[in-house]
Amino acid sequence: MKSFVIFFLIFTVLTVNIIANNTGDWLDVGPDAKALGMGAASVAVAENSYATFWNPAALSGKKQLYSTFATLFGEVDYQYIGYNQEFPFGNVGISFLSINVDGFNYTSLINGRPLDNGSSFSFDNSALFFSYGNQLSNVINKVPFLRKWNGAWMQPIKVGSTLKFLNQSLADETSSGFGLDLGFQYKINKRLTIAGVFYNFLSTGLTWSTGANDSIPLKGKVGISHCYNDKLLLVADIEVLGYQEPGISWGVEYAVNPFFTIRSGRNKEIVTFGLGINYKGISFDYAYKQATDSYLDGSTRFSLGYVFGSVFRKKDKEKEPKITNKKELPKVEEKIKPKKKTEESQGKAQKENKPKKKKTKKTRSLRRRVI
After folding, report:
1. CA 302: distance to chain centroid?
2. Which of 33, 86, 163, 260 could cross-link 61 (Cys pair, CB 3.0–4.6 Å)?
3. Residues whose CB is less than 8 angstroms from the CB of residue 145 and which lie 6 or more positions away in sequence, other chains included
4. What gap in Å lies between CA 85 and CA 59, rounded to an integer?
């Protein structure tokens, strides 16, 4: 515990002064409405298929499908779909992200002035994520020379990685590349969790069809969450690496009842709020983020999720015991208990068990006379 906390502090302090650039900033726009409603702070609490984006270590073992459709600033189309499932070797997730902006006009220089020539182009970005997450102890056990370091202190720690394939297109030019994200999550207890993630851990580059190259910088975040009484959740993320203007995002979620939650937060200097509805594994989330400038509209998110097996789950009759009705239990007991003796057998037993009468003097004298 002590050594892990020291590592966590070093991770936070030593990475905060790294020089940043803004290439690939479209990858900083979080996908899910739940996270945005809490100020887009989700590094420590992401657990469904959105964990492929936020922190692969937090992947849940449940079988889930989530999607998001949004309009950013009234102009940008944003789509995300993700799926995750548990396997014997760990938790696996796959997701796809698409961000598109249309309506850019081509211009031509006419008499030294740029004028619209009547045609337009778009700017398209997409990413495909493949994620893996597991308990650190399970990972260590698979490496023979590291097994001796395994212990109970590793049980609360989860680790994960995401391999992502990136594509961009601007007008008639295209680019592609790949990157790797690494994350961890440590549950100090049932209510308190800390986590950290490195985005673009390997040198992530985009190669354009023109021959030009762009590099996406290494970035990092740390997150913390605390749950009070299973109703109130507090979360916070700190940008510590690679961001031009590092900041803190925080949020709160309150479960009004098992089916309805309300959220609010602050994404750096921007206020966000949202709500969520969850019924038998089907979830709907909505979030709104204020505009960053007066000439832009605010951003909205709509997310829809489903946990497989939660709604139309069929009972496995073969695995269930044959007798499930309590009314049938006495019948079983009757079979197990010894059979009750019939009246005839009871009568015979009573005759056999009766004590024999002692011969008196009168019976003896009668016998002598007869003889």
Report:
1. 18
2. 86
3. none
4. 9
Tens of pLDDT, residues 82-98: 999 999 999 999 999 99
Residues 254/235, Cβ–Cβ less than 8 Å: no
Report which of residues 230 and 335 the model is more confident about: 230
Which residues, including other chains, have CB under 8 Å from residue 303's CB and lie 6 or more apart?
31, 32, 33, 34, 66, 67, 68, 283, 284, 285, 286, 287
* Helix boundaries (H) for 142-188: none
Q: Look at residue 126 and tell me whether its pLDDT is greater than 70.
A: yes
Nearest to 184 by CA among 10, 43, 88, 40: 43
- Tell me if residue 71 falls in helix, strand or coil: strand
Token pair listed for 285: 């989330």
How many residues appear in the chain? 371
Q: pTM, whole model, 2 decimals?
A: 0.74
Query: What token pair was written down for 359?
Result: 């011969």
d(CA 199, CA 216): 9
Please check whether residue 188 is in contact with residue 225, taking contact to mean a CB–CB distance below 8 angstroms: no
Lookup: tokens for 123: 């700017």
Residue 4's contacts (CB-CB under 8 Å, 6 or more residues apart) are 153, 157, 186
Residues facing residue 149 across a β-bridge: none
Listing DSSP states for 277-305 in one string gives: EEETTEEEEEEEE--SSTTS--EEEEEEE
CA distance 4 to 10: 10
Hey, what are 90's tokens?
């760990």
Specify whether the CB–CB gap between 170 and 123 falls below 8 A: yes
Instruction: Tell me the CA distances in angstroms from 248 to 18, 39, 224, 265, 277, one per residue in order.
Output: 17, 9, 11, 11, 27
- Strand 232-241 and strand 248-257: the pairing is antiparallel
Domain ranges of the chain: 2-307
What token pair was written down for 35?
A: 């996270």
> Which helix (DSSP H) or strand (DSSP E) does residue 237 occupy?
strand 232-241
**Can you name the CATH fold of 2-307?**
Porin (2.40.160)
